[in-house]
Backbone:
């Protein structure tokens, strides 16, 4: 056994879970799928005094489409694979499944939770960027009550969020983009499913004449937290078939300031951001043009 | 109600969590440390060493077992969370001395060299073939993407799984 010892708590209800988190605050750490946390425990990069295992909270194991089809809400115990396979969620927001196919490998998606990866806030976590791209929200519970935070306020840095150690993230909500839109995720990784060297999710909105009304993109692995860039100014009003997508790609790359690491240089990441943005926007525009 | 296991409630030795796990159809009850992970429980507590352990970061796939039918990495799965679940390991594949069709096919296609990755590939493949749809080659390759073979014998592995899939489909090898 490689993890350091911890006091183990296995609450049966959400109320019990937040009560335990309050009692041990700030020494508690929430365990859901454990696909990021257990390796950290095994490497002893994390050694929490108290582990609060929420795997018995079956009331949080859900994927729900809003009544009007305008959003998808994912509970804290829904595994990535549950979200990926949810037909109703796919029907209103195919971007979720399309992106989840890039999230690690099938075994990890069977165990890891979408909410857990968002709470973990790894700068290379795809679902953090999807939530930010769609201007989604995060709902947190504590003994003090419930609050809902916008994605842009939730992520505060690498592996950092505004969540207090006494709070449990109970769900996240992904709004479905309004209007005639297309959304695409694309990324480059050394092996499919590995951490992306650069990844981007985009949404393109067209008006009734098929002119570009909006374009925005979110990025992973190029900034400390998921960064969203509005690219509309590069392509606004242009017809979908001959919009200058490379100009939008250049605009995006100019706004990003990635770092070097052992996997790639900053220059290569910038290059990827430009090329991937261009490709993704073009594809998203194509999807928007055939959308109802 | 929250069950909590801590030093303060333990009478002697490290604190323990009671678990009852179905392992290859046999119900097993044990007291485990909260920090115990499933692969160590299987190998060290139960002596089921067919499941291998390597990276312990769920990137290599050798520790793949089925928990309630879904393939997971046993290296990052707390044993405490397997309480009440059914776990299938490579030891549960054969029926006595009769090999599972996947095991037969791996032998026939020379789909193992050193053999260290084989249990993970077998369990991953079983989960795929147990699904509702008979997979094609592309689906097999995608499904096995998280399993690493350092002998690099991927082609025979994919062919072995494809062969069993074709039999299920009643295809040319059927």
Residues:
């Amino acid at each position: 056994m490689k993890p350091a010892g911890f006091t183990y708590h296995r609450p049966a209800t959400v109320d019990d879970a937040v009560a335990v988190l309050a009692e041990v605050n700030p020494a508690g750490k929430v365990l859901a799928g454990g696909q990021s946390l257990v390796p950290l425990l095994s490497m002893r990069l994390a050694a929490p005094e108290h582990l609060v295992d929420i795997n018995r909270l079956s009331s949080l194991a859900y994927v729900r489409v809003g009544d009007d089809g305008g959003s998808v809400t994912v509970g804290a115990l829904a595994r990535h694979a549950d979200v990926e396979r949810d037909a109703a969620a796919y029907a209103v927001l195919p971007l979720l499944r399309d992106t989840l196919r890039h999230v690690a490998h099938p075994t990890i998606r069977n165990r890891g939770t979408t909410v857990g990866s968002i709470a973990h806030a790894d700068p290379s976590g795809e679902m953090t960027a999807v939530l930010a791209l769609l201007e989604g929200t995060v709902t947190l519970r504590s003994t003090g009550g419930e609050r809902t935070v916008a994605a842009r306020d939730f992520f505060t840095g690498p592996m950092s969020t505004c969540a207090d150690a006494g709070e449990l993230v109970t769900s996240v909500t992904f709004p479905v983009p309004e209007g005639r839109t297309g959304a695409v995720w694309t990324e480059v990784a050394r092996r499919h499913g590995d951490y992306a060297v650069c990844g981007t999710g985009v949404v393109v909105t067209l008006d009734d004449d098929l002119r570009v009304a909006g374009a925005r993109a979110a990025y992973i692995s190029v900034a400390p937290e998921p960064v969203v860039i509005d690219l509309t100014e590069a392509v606004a009003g242009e017809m979908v078939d001959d919009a200058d997508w490379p100009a939008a790609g250049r605009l995006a790359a100019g706004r990003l300031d990635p770092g070097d690491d052992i996997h790639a240089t900053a220059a290569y990441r910038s290059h990827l951001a430009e090329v991937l943005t261009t490709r993704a926007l073009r594809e998203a525009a194509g999807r928007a043009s055939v959308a109802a | 109600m929250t069950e909590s296991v801590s030093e303060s409630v333990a009478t002697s030795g490290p604190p323990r969590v009671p678990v009852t796990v179905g392992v290859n159809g046999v119900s097993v009850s044990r007291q485990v440390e909260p920090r115990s992970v499933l692969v160590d429980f299987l190998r060290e507590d139960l002596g089921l060493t067919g499941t291998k352990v390597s990276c312990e970061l769920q990137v290599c796939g050798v520790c793949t077992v089925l928990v309630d039918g879904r393939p997971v990495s046993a290296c990052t799965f707390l044993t405490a969370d397997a309480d009440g679940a059914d776990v299938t390991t490579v030891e549960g594949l054969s029926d006595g001395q009769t090999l599972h069709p996947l095991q037969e096919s791996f032998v026939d296609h020379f789909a193992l060299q050193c053999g260290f990755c084989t249990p993970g590939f077998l369990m991953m493949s079983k989960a795929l073939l147990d699904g509702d749809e008979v997979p094609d080659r592309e689906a097999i390759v995608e499904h096995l993407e998280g399993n690493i073979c350092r002998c690099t014998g991927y082609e025979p592995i994919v062919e072995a799984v494809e062969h069993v899939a074709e039999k299920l489909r009643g295809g040319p090898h059927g």
Q: What stands out?
A: Residues 180-289 of chain A form a domain with the Enolase-like; domain 1 fold (CATH 3.30.390.50). Chain A has a mean pLDDT of 96. The longest strand of chain A covers residues 196-206. Chain A touches chain B through 38 residues (CB under 8 Å).
